[in-house]
TrEMBL record:
It is found in: Membrane. It comes from Chlamydomonas schloesseri. It is a single-pass type II membrane protein. Residues 1-19 form the signal peptide. The lineage of its organism: Eukaryota, Viridiplantae, Chlorophyta, core chlorophytes, Chlorophyceae. InterPro entries: Xyl/GlcA_transferase. The keyword Transmembrane applies. GO terms for cellular component: membrane. This is Uncharacterized protein. Keywords: Glycoprotein, Membrane, Signal, Signal-anchor, Transmembrane, Transmembrane helix. One of its GO terms (biological process) is protein O-linked glycosylation via mannose. GO terms for molecular function: glucuronosyltransferase activity; xylosyltransferase activity. The keyword Metal-binding does not apply.
């Protein structure tokens, strides 16, 4: 089997992306093929995204160009779930290097396509270039014989836009959900692609006795937060080094280029209680505080979905954490693992969001901005949470897909509790 790894990798093209279905589809991994099938038969050219789709909270039409699914056995039975745009493939490579289990990522390409009846030559070219880039990453990862890196499961999703302005609306929560559909382990951890998991996470979860403790906790309603750090000097490679060197190296690193995540926004991560974590050897409980946005290990069958309406920038992860808290989650912190932020260029939509936020203009004047719409969604979500009626909004195409995947049927998923 080892010799035919590449050929066994799932390969599935949508007819829209490329006219011919590749021969390799016949030998595609069954799971990857089932996922690819979810995207067939849509006419997304007729439903190209415009700005109003966002302000009216309409789901967008998403297409899959290709699925890659490593046939290698899971190194650890825990799936890291993430999403990335084209320019972040290098971050994905770095995550893969310190993760030993399946790494499921939804990769995204927005395409401005003026025509409503055909894919432009430029769109096709961009798709093909991205397929080639991802393919190279996948093949390199598959042929890496160091034996300790992740098993990639990738889907390249693309969205057609009628309106160039709307292309900043990165559908982060939809992508997180689609990526999670590639997880078939009971444990998963959603970690944004710019965060590098410490090697110690894979080590502790690779130990059956230690993993059993996490499993029991997650199965019974706890999640385990990974404390997050960022760098304020040195480059991306420094972050990679800190992730490898282990918790014992952190006191020294904190005197150099490492610091706690987002010190200027303590509500994001301070609830983790970093002081306690530095000396903790056992998991400990923490209290959720408003706008906490941790990354954590959780039970696949108990992790709430992400609300697709939040896209572009702002509140997307916070909403899910708030809903998890409202549903009675016990928040615990893992003493073993941590994450290190890997520096990257700031996105344009983030800059615009923050500019609107700190503009001192009132919401009327900001109508039509990402900031204004996300804030209004957040207020409405807060009311629903308080009333106990909030449910993350999911696209119908998404739930239909989930229903078609055998590993998402509870009785076959090995899930209980
Ligand atoms: C191979 O895997 C090792 C260990 O995970 C990693 O450090 C290295 O960068 C990988 N090489 C490639 C070419 O991806
Ligand atoms: C951060 O958390 C610590 C420990 O829980 C607490 O003592 C401190 O007041 C918090 N700081 C901020 C700025 O919230
Ligand atoms: C988190 O959930 C608990 C238990 O349901 C609740 O008492 C608490 O008010 C929530 N915290 C916030 C900040 O909403």
């Amino acid at each position: 089997m080892i010799g035919t790894l590449a050929a066994l990798a799932a390969v599935a093209w949508t007819p829209l992306a490329l006219a011919q279905v590749s021969d390799e589809a016949a030998t595609a991994g069954a799971q990857g093929q089932l996922l690819a099938d979810c995207f067939k038969g849509q006419n997304c050219l007729a439903k190209r995204t415009a700005w109003e789709h966002f302000t009216d909270d309409l789901p967008s039409c998403m297409l899959a160009a290709r699925v890659w699914w490593s046939p290698r056995p899971a190194g650890i039975p825990v799936t890291l779930v993430t999403q990335a745009s084209a320019e972040r493939l290098d971050q994905l490579r770095a995550q893969c290097a310190t993760w030993r289990g399946p790494l499921a990522a939804a990769l995204y390409l927005p395409l401005y396509n003026p025509s409503s009846h055909e894919l432009s030559a430029e769109s096709k070219q961009k798709l093909q270039a991205m397929v080639a880039g991802i393919d190279e990453l996948f093949q390199k990862s598959e042929s890496n014989n160091s034996g300790s890196s992740c098993q990639l499961r990738l889907i390249l999703l693309y969205e057609l836009f009628a309106d160039q302005k709307a292309m900043v609306l990165y559908p982060v929560n939809s992508l997180r959900n689609w990526a999670r559909l590639m997880a078939d382990t009971d444990l998963l951890t959603n970690i944004d692609v710019d965060m590098i998991p410490s090697v110690s996470i894979s080590e502790v979860l690779g130990d059956a006795a230690q993993r059993a403790v996490y499993e029991e906790g997650c199965r019974t309603g706890s999640v385990y937060v990974w404390p997050a750090f960022e760098t304020h000097c040195a480059g991306a490679l420094y972050a990679d080094t800190v992730a490898v060197q282990g918790k014992g190296s952190l006191p020294e690193a904190l005197k150099k280029c490492l610091r706690r995540m987002r010190p200027k926004a303590p509500f994001s991560h301070n609830a983790t209680n970093y002081d306690k974590w530095m000396t903790a050897t056992e998991p400990y409980d923490i209290t959720y505080s408003p706008q906490f946005e941790p990354w954590f290990l959780s039970w696949r069958w108990g992790t709430l979905w992400y609300d697709y309406r939040y896209r572009g920038y702002g509140k997307n992860k916070i909403v899910q954490a708030a809903a998890m808290n409202a549903s009675g989650t016990t928040w615990r912190v893992s003493p073993d693992g941590y994450l290190v932020h890997r520096k990257h260029a700031e996105s344009r939509v983030r800059k615009e969001f923050l500019k609107a936020k700190f503009s001192k203009k009132d919401m009327d004047a900001l109508r039509g901005t990402v900031y204004e719409h996300v804030e209004s969604l957040w207020r409405a979500t807060g009311q629903e949470l308080a009333a106990g009626s909030y449910m993350a909004r999911l696209e119908r195409s998404f739930t239909r897909c989930m229903d078609s995947l055998p590993w998402w049927k509870r009785e076959q998923g090995g899930g209980s509790g």
